[in-house]
Design goal:
The complex is a heterodimer of chains A (about 350) and B (about 475).
Chain A: H1 11-25, H2 28-40, H3 45-65, H4 71-90, E1 102-107, H5 115-126, E2 130-135, H6 140-150, E3 154-158, H7 165-177, E4 182-185, H8 194-198, E5 203-205, H9 208-216, H10 236-263, H11 266-269, H12 271-295, H13 298-314, H14 321-332, H15 337-352
Parallel strand pairs in A: 1-2, 1-3, 3-4, 4-5
Helix pairs in contact in A: 1-2, 1-3, 2-4, 3-4, 3-5, 4-5, 5-9, 6-7, 10-12, 10-14, 12-13, 12-15, 13-15, 14-15
Chain B: E1 6-12, E2 18-24, H1 26-74, H2 79-93, E3 97-102, E4 110-115, E5 118-123, H3 134-139, E6 147-150, E7 167-176, E8 181-190, H4 198-233, E9 247-253, E10 264-269, E11 278-285, H5 289-305, H6 313-326, E12 333-343, E13 346-354, E14 360-362, E15 368-370, E16 374-375, E17 386-393, E18 398-402, H7 404-407, E19 410-411, E20 417-418, H8 420-429, H9 436-451, E21 459-465
Antiparallel strand pairs in B: 1-2, 3-4, 3-8, 4-5, 6-7, 7-8, 9-21, 10-11, 11-12, 12-13, 13-17, 14-15, 14-18, 16-17, 18-21, 19-20
Helix pairs in contact in B: 1-2, 1-4, 2-4
The chains are: A alpha/beta (about 350), B alpha+beta (about 475).
Pfam families (chain A): B12-binding, B12-binding_2
GO molecular function, one term (chain A): cobalamin binding
Organism (chain A): Streptomyces sulfonofaciens
Chain lengths: ~350, ~475
């Protein structure tokens, strides 16, 4: 049932290009047609999901990160991709086998990027697991309730943004307390999975295929009672600073915003929207700072600061905007030496970068 | 001289004679003896102390094990996981292998087993009566202590697959529950290890008390959860799907994090007649949490019953108003009705608000308009007045129904600010040409990020979208494709 809008593309790379094009045009029918055509041409359903849909979704993410796609456009493309996944999953060629155990797949609460978890759920279903896909925005109590209710062999937790790591810690702990081992995945846990280990996840996988391979060897063994994750060994000061920093965010943002307007009067000239955007960027900065304090990992924050500098440069922010924002935030922190040190380190990394941080407004 | 002792010592005098000194050393001798006795006593006390220390260590270890047991079991409320954990704890600390048989009241018995690193669960592949004493342990009657049996008498399913025999004696212990027996525990020790002592048996009994209580709690939780899930099913917001060439998508976030439902609600009812109108409803009742959710259930049922009159929104709302006024509780609600039908490439909407924020429309060019409908809320006044509005949606255009939980959400980067209609409209400007789900998700995400960790009211949104042309939903979909599940 190849559709007129779809057309057949030779090879995964060509199919990816056509699918990416369909997503950009918002052409859902074409997108569905491309995936179904690939399926009918003999591409295994798992490959259609991972080498086609997931690969193109990564492009969507990269385009958003590079400020070439708005959040709304990213949502529109993701919604279409989600429909593509549904179409593939409903196709007879993607009928799952049965016979393995049961796995719950969920996003960390506050995580809106649900597609990676959805893809993992479908891949596990194809590989014979009974999968409960809980989606994004699952409050921890609901997740735990589900685990009590169904008693799965493992729960796969997905998160893409490191700012969710404190919530991820809470979630991992709650799942393990319910006696269910945790498999962590997604960019938030670090390219090498170091945050999965830090939070005491029972297993970590860099992508859906690896996760499925790992689970195929048998679900991870639950932690022995009483065992505690490495994050509990971090200095108590880190946690103290985290709990002080989070509620202080509105004040820090307000004061830093005032300071930025003084130093860069142009911020005001662009009207309320730009001011609002800057306030949101500052709030996000404090969120990343808090996550870096919580995990005692400077790279989390420096990486974010560098990314923000690039994005703001692309948006035409004045040179030195991000370093100035970091200075202003740093000057307003009181009694938070660890956070202050992280800010200084990020400031230093930005200063050391060869590339110009942006063009003057 | 009775009781006394003397010491005789010779000494040579100056003239060559021997002089014998005779001295009474009774006191000294007694002192030495006393010292010897004291030393022996000390040695005995030291041995006793060492034994006491070892005992204390044992006791501490046992207490710690029981504490760990309680801690680990306290949070596991799934019966299967719970039996597995009991088996693992028992196999790791009390024996070399353990099997837990859950008492189900029926004939079918779930079994969890553990030995070494191997653990799992399955079904008892045989009659519990095959194991001497197991039936009594499982029925909890007559109540009694553990029973020792010859492990050779155990059937296959009562020995953990990971247990590397040969086994010595096996111990069968009931797991007491709340009035009923929760199950039974079979402990196996390798034949080459010392059999369980009486002290060990005491520990097993203490462990069994904790394990049994945990298993009973898990079972009670499952029963409660099943009851509330059944009751809740009707109250959960429905999953929306396209109906006859018009896309519908809904999103819901309860104000209380522990709950799934609250005072907001939405429904989409595909009309009965082919080509007829579909009625979408979104509303908000007074109150919060479960109580409010019960009231939404009442309103949703009433509206469903009034569907045949959906051609006349004012009449539907008047009747609903009457039902609420006549009801036993003082309850009121605001809501929006949207009757939707596809005409050619466009979706035609008839909207009526009853005290509810008017829906917003996103045009294909990104313009956002507030629909011009207003009316009285229902459940307060005897007479209500409403003013309907008609809206046409070209392909790619969306009409968004939302509750004030979205617009009145407080938070933002500076804290304490309201999300507001303006910000919602600004968010919608980016949503022209987007699929209905994407619009809903976009709005939900922005509102959720706006409130962050702050408390908020229930939030509900429904997007009614005329499908973008490219998505090719031109052919009207079959009626059975749409509507509530």
């Amino acid at each position: 049932m190849s559709t007129p809008g779809g057309g057949r593309a030779a090879g995964p790379a060509a199919a990816r290009a056509v699918l990416w094009d369909a997503l950009r045009r918002g052409d859902e029918q074409a997108a569905r047609g491309i995936a179904l055509a690939a399926l009918e041409d003999g591409m295994p359903a798992e490959d259609v999901l991972l080498d086609l849909v997931a690969a193109v979704q990564r492009t969507v993410g990269a385009e958003w990160a590079a400020n070439r796609m708005t959040v709304a456009q990213e949502h529109a493309a993701t919604a279409i991709n989600d429909h593509v996944v549904s179409a593939v999953a409903a196709h007879p060629a993607a009928a799952g086998t049965a016979g393995r155990g049961r796995i719950a797949v969920a996003c960390i609460d506050g995580e809106w990027h649900a597609l990676p978890a959805r893809l993992l759920a479908e891949v596990l279903r194809l590989r014979g697991w009974h999968v409960d896909y809980l989606g994004s925005q699952v409050p921890v109590p609901h997740l735990v309730e589900h685990l009590h209710h169904t008693g799965p062999d493992a729960v796969a937790l997905s998160s893409s943004l490191p700012v969710r790591l404190p919530t991820a810690h809470l979630t991992v702990t709650a799942c393990q307390a319910a006696g269910v081992p945790v498999l962590a995945g997604g960019a938030a846990f670090g390219a090498d999975g170091r945050f999965a280990r830090l939070l005491g996840a029972d297993a970590w996988a860099p992508d859906a295929r690896t996760a499925a391979d790992l689970l195929a060897q048998g679900p991870p063994r639950p932690r022995p009672p009483g065992a505690h994750p490495p994050v509990d060994d971090l200095p108590a000061a880190a946690r103290r600073e985290y709990v002080r920093l989070v509620p202080d965010s509105p004040r820090l943002v307000r004061e830093a915003l005032d300071g930025l307007q003084e130093r860069f009067p142009a911020v005001r000239d662009h009207g309320d929207r730009r001011l609002q955007q800057t306030a949101e960027d500052l709030a996000r900065t404090v969120e990343f700072l808090a996550a870096a304090v919580y995990t005692d990992d400077g790279a989390v924050f420096t990486g974010f600061a560098e990314w923000l500098a690039d994005v703001l440069a692309a948006r035409g922010a004045p040179a030195g905007f991000v370093p100035a924002a970091l200075d202003l935030l740093g000057a307003r922190l009181t009694g938070l030496p660890r956070a202050a040190a992280l800010l200084r380190a990020a400031r230093g990394a930005l200063g050391a970068r060869r590339t110009a941080p942006g063009r003057p407004a | 001289m009775a009781g006394r002792s003397f010491e005789a010592r010779p000494a040579r005098t100056g003239d060559g004679r021997i002089l014998w000194w005779l001295s009474d050393d009774t006191a000294r001798r007694r002192a030495v003896e006393a010292l010897e006795r004291a030393e022996a006593e000390l040695e005995r006390s030291e041995t006793a102390l060492e034994r006491a220390r070892a005992d204390l260590g044992d006791q501490r270890e046992r207490t710690a094990f029981l504490a760990r047991t309680s801690e680990a079991l306290a949070t596991v409320l799934n019966a299967e996981r719970c039996t597995e954990l009991i088996a693992r704890l028992a196999a790791d600390h009390l024996a070399d292998g353990a099997v837990v048989i859950a008492a189900t009241g029926g004939r079918d018995h779930r079994v969890a087993h553990a030995a070494g690193r191997d653990a799992g669960h399955g079904r008892a592949d045989g009659d519990p009566r095959q194991v001497p004493g197991l039936s009594e342990a499982l029925s909890g009657f007559p109540p009694g202590p553990s029973r020792r049996v010859d492990s050779a008498a155990l059937p296959c399913w009562a020995v953990p697959p990971g247990f590397a025999g040969p086994a010595g004696e096996a111990l069968i212990t009931p797991l007491p529950g709340h009035g009923l027996c929760s199950g039974a525990l079979i402990l196996l020790r390798s034949a080459d290890r010392a059999p369980l002592t009486e002290d060990d048996e005491v520990l097993v009994r203490l462990f069994a008390a904790r394990a049994g209580a945990a298993l009973a709690a898990a079972r009670a939780y499952a029963e409660q959860a099943a009851v509330s899930a059944t009751l809740m099913r009707e109250m959960l917001p429905p999953r929306l799907r396209p109906v006859r060439g018009v896309d519908f998508a809904g999103g819901y976030r309860a104000g209380r994090r522990t709950e799934r439902v609250g005072g907001d609600f939405y429904d989409v009812h595909p009309g009965n007649a082919a080509g007829g109108e579909t009625l979408a409803v979104l509303g908000d009742v007074c109150g919060k949490g479960l109580e409010a959710a019960v009231l939404t259930g009442k309103i949703r049922t009433t509206l469903q019953a009034l569907l045949p009159m959906a051609g006349d929104h004012a009449r539907v709302l008047r009747l609903l108003n009457g039902v609420l006024l006549d009801g036993p509780d003082t309850s009121f609600a605001t809501l929006v009705l949207a009757s939707v039908v596809r005409r050619g490439r466009r979706a035609h909407l008839r909207l009526t608000s009853a005290g509810h924020p008017p829906p917003l429309v996103v045009r294909a060019d990104g313009t956002v308009q507030e629909t011009r409908t207003r009316g009285t809320l229902v459940g307060v006044l005897d007479e209500i007045e409403t003013e309907s509005a008609e809206v046409e949606l070209a392909p790619g255009e969306t009409c968004l129904l939302f509750s004030d939980g979205i617009t009145e959400a407080r938070g933002g980067p500076l804290g304490g600010a309201m999300f507001g209609v303006e910000r919602l409209a600004a968010a919608l400007r980016a949503c022209a040409g987007m699929p209905a789900e994407a619009v809903v998700e976009h709005v939900q995400m922005l509102a959720a990020q706006w409130v962050g960790e702050h408390p908020h009211d229930d939030m509900a949104v429904v997007a009614v979208t005329s499908p973008p042309l490219a998505s090719g939903a031109c052919a009207p979909q079959r009626p059975q494709d749409g509507g509530v599940p």
